[in-house]
Amino acid sequence: MTPSRILVIYAHPAPRRSRANKPLARALASLPGVAMHDLYWHYPDFDIDVRIEQAAVEAAELIVFQFPVQWYATPSLLKEWLDVVLEMGWAYGPGGTALRGKHLMVLATTGGRAHSYSQAGTHGYTFDMFLLPLQRTAALCGMQWEPPHVLHDADDASPEAIDAHIAQVRAALQPWLPDDADFPA
Ligand SMILES: Cc1cc2nc3c(=O)[nH]c(=O)nc-3n(C[C@H](O)[C@H](O)[C@H](O)COP(=O)(O)O)c2cc1C
Fold first, then answer.
1. How many CB atoms are located within 10 Å of the residue 89 CB?
2. Which residues contact 20 (CB under 8 A, 6 or more apart)?
3. Whose CA is nearest to atom 17 of ligand 1?
4. Cβ neighbours, 10 Å, residue 25
5. What pLDDT is attached to residue 181?
6. Does residue 185 register a pLDDT over 50?
7. Domains, the chain, ranges and CATH?
8. How close is the Cα of 55 to the center of ligand 1, in Å?
């Protein structure tokens, strides 16, 4: 069996109510070469097993964070994951080279519409600004930041819009997928 080059860290606090992330997570999970890791399923009490998480990250080339945006940030369990897994001496600092050369890609969904994420819009800033903490974390750990894929207006997105988003994500993952990977319908 080919080892998974892509590790998807999925963080949705209410996955059964999800419209947008659920079909995306399902599609990603069925791709060859993708290891799907559902944080809220594994750690409902937030008691993250740091060694297991670090081993999973070490085995991957592309780390994907998939989450619905909550209060302009990641859901809290993904923030906790960052806080406890990215240890000094492993992820950064002296001897902290485990993530160096790996790639990080964000797959986020928002309730806000695309135009509301602008200087003149409700949220006052472009969406990129809210990803800066993750982008800087990647840089500090020597990771390459991949262009994020964001589905805005996710609560009201049509099935066609969700399908188009899934297809766009699949295309972005192509460089890390096995040559013969087929995307499920
Ligand atoms: C507690 C909470 C906070 C949220 N904060 C934001 C926010 O800051 N910006 C935004 O655009 N949407 C926000 N939303 C909307 C979610 O991002 C949206 O419902 C989700 O991305 C839809 O994806 P899903 O169908 O997979 O759940 C929030 C939702 C919840 C429940």
1. 11
2. 68, 109, 151, 154, 155, 157, 162, 165
3. 110
4. 20
5. 64
6. no
7. 6-176 (3.40.50.360)
8. 30
Q: Does the C-beta of 112 come closer than 6 Å to ligand 1?
A: yes
Placement of tokens 């930041």 in the chain: 145
How big is the chain, counted in residues?
Answer: 185
Q: Which residues are paired to 65 by β-bridges?
A: 9, 106
Tokens read off for 68: 């619905």
Q: Which residues sit opposite 64 in a β-bridge?
A: 8, 105
Q: Are strands 6-10 and 144-145 parallel, antiparallel or unpaired?
A: unpaired
Phi, psi at residue 36, to the nearest 5°?
A: -100, 130
pLDDT band of 122, cuts 50, 70, 90? very high
d(Cα 69, Cα 89) in Å, to the nearest integer? 30
List pLDDT tens digits, range 49-107.
Answer: 999 999 999 999 999 999 999 999 999 999 999 999 999 999 999 999 999 999 999 99
